[in-house]
Backbone:
């Protein structure tokens, strides 16, 4: 009966006009043309942040300077997805050395919080909110690591635009206003401290709506201290002491010593070759290699005769996802604590063996045997050929609900993503980085930069990355079309948090997927569902090496903008 009702719903949805703009050129689902520019390009999820990044480039800053400036602005303008209370990952193509670099700026768990603490309280999972899931925020250290290696302008100049907007205010965009009007009341209902003072008192005692002015003078002050005092102002100064004292008062364990001990890590990015294109991700503790595993499996199928959005397309994609995510649940974790077999997981032989398990109907799988919620994504490119792919998040939208007094931001709740089951790769340990969902991506071709891109959205991100790569390479879409094309995801299966596979899960599709595909998937034994707001937010920059032109794209699911010059 459930599937029958969904069928009727999809018949209705997919017989309506999915797109009403009647574009003269391009795919019918594209919302706009690609943005083109020769000197630089910025694509973020907020138009004002994009303009800040573009201004930095025009004033002689490079891609790293612009990326940090835009990310700081997003922490103010899009607090429902990111901020200095969260973590950061980045992939950088350096135009000077012609090489890729990868930064893992994720924070670790409190040193004094142990697995036994949870076991004595019979807790089966770490809470989603409150002081216990708070891990060290790594974003600020990530900014300074990127700046130390590649930056050119002083941090006082880089953070100045965000500070000015925080003090003078800016109009809230449609989507962020919608999220804040639903998120802030939830935190208030939980009686978390400092929520009203941080988000409402500075704005006349209420939350602004779309188009109304929002200010955050506390965050302006925090940014100013960071700009003038460097990363130590955050991790070893007054800010760290305020955070440590506050979390202790709330019954948590994150301390000023945990912040003082934090450091980011430059890592070697990993890749697979997909039909002549090298697709790059970061190794765990993130989930980026799940996208690479999916691509390795899918490369074994000829998509020249498989139509985009068809039953066969979604079926093969979903089964590849299930296989990769079983391995994700078993093997992905902080590599300082667990020997993740990255090379074997990405090998051709392993992919071929896993591919053999895929049949003509929806299946359930287990991990292979190996021997041995809201985020922001942004990308920037400059006139020296440097391109940065950067993702930053608090997790579960705004984070833990823990807003330290008068600092203007909320701390992340990434610690929720540990497993509390003993003996697993991602089992909780002190000073360990949790399994991470946020992942930036990059594509090179013949040793040259091609596309810097990312797609927000928790577990959806490896699926989103794989869809974008296939849209560009298998289905010949341009950069904007690749992001605007209708999406789908799959829920269910095993999880790094300890959940095991119980059934074939559910494929959730956007309304642009035709009913004929839905019907075909049901015939193959798949369960079908719908959801909103789970398909991420895509930004991308493509380098056309022949014409020496950047192409930029920002999809319509968010408030974002791509702009170049």
Residues:
């Amino acid at each position: 009966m459930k599937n029958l009702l969904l069928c009727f719903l999809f018949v209705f949805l997919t017989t309506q006009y999915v797109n009403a703009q009647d574009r003269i050129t391009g795919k019918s689902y594209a919302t706009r043309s690609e943005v083109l520019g020769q000197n630089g390009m910025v694509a973020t999820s907020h138009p004002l942040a994009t303009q800040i990044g573009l201004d930095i480039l025009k004033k002689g800053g490079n891609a790293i300077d612009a990326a940090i400036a835009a990310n700081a602005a997003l922490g103010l303008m899009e607090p429902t997805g990111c901020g200095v209370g969260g973590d950061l990952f980045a992939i950088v193509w350096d135009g000077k050395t012609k090489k890729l670099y990868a930064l893992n700026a994720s924070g670790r768990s409190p040193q004094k919080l142990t697995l036994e603490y949870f076991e004595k309280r019979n807790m089966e999972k770490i809470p989603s909110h409150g002081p216990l899931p708070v891990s060290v925020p790594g974003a600020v250290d990530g900014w300074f690591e990127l700046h130390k290696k590649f930056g050119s302008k002083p941090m006082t100049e880089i953070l100045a635009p965000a500070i000015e907007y925080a003090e003078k205010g800016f109009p809230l965009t449609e989507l962020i206003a919608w999220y804040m009007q639903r998120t802030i009341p939830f935190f208030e209902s939980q009686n978390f401290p400092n929520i009203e003072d941080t988000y409402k008192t500075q704005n006349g005692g209420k939350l602004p709506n779309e188009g109304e002015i929002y200010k955050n003078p506390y965050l302006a002050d925090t940014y100013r201290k960071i700009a003038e005092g460097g990363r130590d102002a955050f991790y070893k100064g007054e800010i760290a002491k305020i955070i440590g004292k506050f979390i202790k008062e709330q019954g948590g364990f994150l301390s000023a010593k945990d912040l003082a001990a934090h450091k980011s890590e430059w890592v070697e990015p990993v890749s697979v070759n997909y039909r002549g294109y090298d697709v790059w991700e970061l190794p765990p503790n993130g989930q980026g290699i799940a996208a690479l595993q999916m691509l390795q499996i899918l490369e074994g199928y000829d998509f020249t005769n498989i139509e985009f959005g068809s039953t066969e397309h979604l079926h093969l994609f979903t089964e590849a996802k299930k296989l990769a995510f079983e391995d994700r649940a078993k093997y992905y974790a902080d590599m300082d604590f667990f020997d993740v077999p990255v090379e074997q997981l990405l090998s051709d032989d392993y992919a071929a063996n896993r591919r053999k398990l895929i049949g003509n109907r929806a299946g359930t799988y287990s991990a292979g045997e190996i021997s041995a919620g809201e985020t922001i994504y942004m990308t920037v490119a400059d006139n020296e050929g440097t391109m940065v792919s950067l993702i930053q998040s608090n997790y579960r939208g705004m984070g833990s609900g823990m807003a330290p007094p008068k600092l203007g931001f909320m701390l992340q709740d990434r610690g929720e993503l540990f497993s509390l089951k003993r003996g697993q790769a991602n089992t909780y340990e002190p000073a360990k980085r949790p399994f991470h969902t946020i992942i930036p991506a990059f594509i090179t071709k013949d040793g040259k930069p091609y596309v810097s891109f990312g797609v927000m959205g928790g577990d959806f991100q490896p699926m989103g990355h794989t869809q974008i790569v296939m849209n560009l390479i298998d289905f010949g879409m341009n950069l904007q079309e690749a992001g605007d094309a209708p999406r789908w995801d799959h829920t269910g299966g095993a999880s790094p948090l300890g959940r095991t596979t119980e059934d074939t899960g559910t494929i959730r599709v956007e309304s642009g997927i035709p009913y004929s595909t839905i019907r075909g998937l049901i015939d193959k034994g798949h369960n079908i569902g719908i959801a909103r707001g789970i398909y991420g937010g895509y930004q991308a920059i493509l380098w056309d090496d022949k014409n020496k032109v950047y192409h930029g794209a920002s999809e319509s699911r968010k408030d974002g903008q791509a702009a170049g010059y």
Remarks:
- Residues 37-266+379-417 form one domain.
- The radius of gyration is 22 Å.
- Confidence is low (pLDDT under 50) at residues 1-18.
- The first helix runs from residue 2 to 14.
